[in-house]
Amino acid sequence: GELLGIIGPNGSGKTTLVNLISGFVKPNGGEVLFKGKDITGLPPYRIVGMGMARTFQMVKPFYQLPAFKNLIVPLCSPRIKAVLGGRYGDRDAIALDLLEEVGFERDSNVAYKPAGSLPQGYLKRLELAKAMALRPDLLILDELFSGLSLAEVASIVPIIEKLRFQGKTIVMIEHRLKELFRIADRIMVLNFGMKIAEGAAGDVMASEAVKKAYLGSEAG
């Protein structure tokens, strides 16, 4: 798999791009291709069924439900029924396994607590687990590291790297550049909705256009 990082100043169009790709916003021109097929304007559930999943910058779990029950909705998708086969009826156990994969301690009761009672670090892990539950081929992570401590980011990075090793294609929108550059294979920079640079992290950050548009805006 490959990990593509998308960066750019606030308002550069990063989340809008992801919304267009994942079907939450319909484009007024152009095409969106996924696995060689035109998915332009398709609703999100259709795109999910083709093997794409995403997280959201602002997490919105089912606050009253236990954390592991939040995974039941994605685990009920027709795509997952076909993947799980005989295990489809064992969704609670699968949900608990997924939460353990993203760092919920199996021997604690955190997975059974209402999602609304969890701190930000666990909510971000839950958001990642919900996307992973869909068994996507393309996983889009929208500012997953936002609001997390350095230690929390360091504990999530191996999970992302494992997904890439398993052959997943991962797209990450991030403002945490140092952490992103350590794991990304390729970086793309947006400004005012346009791609202004693409390549290895070092090459991209040496670009005068990037310094002016991205780092310059940060300094100002």
Bin the helical content. Answer: 40-55%
| Overall radius of gyration | 18 Å
CATH architecture of the largest domain: 3-Layer(aba) Sandwich
In order across it, which strands form the biggest sheet?
Answer: 4-5-6-1-7-8
Which regions contain 5 or more consecutive residues with pLDDT less than 50?
none
General shape: globular
Largest sheet: 6 strands, mixed
End-to-end distance = 36 Å
**Count of domains:** 2
* Count of individual beta strands: 8
Helix-strand topology string: EHEEHEHHHHEHEHEEHH
Query: What is the CATH level 1 assignment of the largest domain?
Result: Alpha Beta
- Which class best fits the helix and strand makeup? alpha/beta
Mean pLDDT: 91
Q: Which helices and strands appear, and what pairs or packs with what?
A:
Layout: E1 3-7, H1 14-22, E2 33-34, E3 37-38, H2 44-49, E4 52-54, H3 72-75, H4 78-84, H5 91-101, H6 120-132, E5 138-142, H7 150-165, E6 169-173, H8 177-183, E7 186-191, E8 194-199, H9 201-205, H10 208-219
Parallel strand pairs: 1-6, 1-7, 4-5, 5-6
Antiparallel strand pairs: 2-3, 7-8
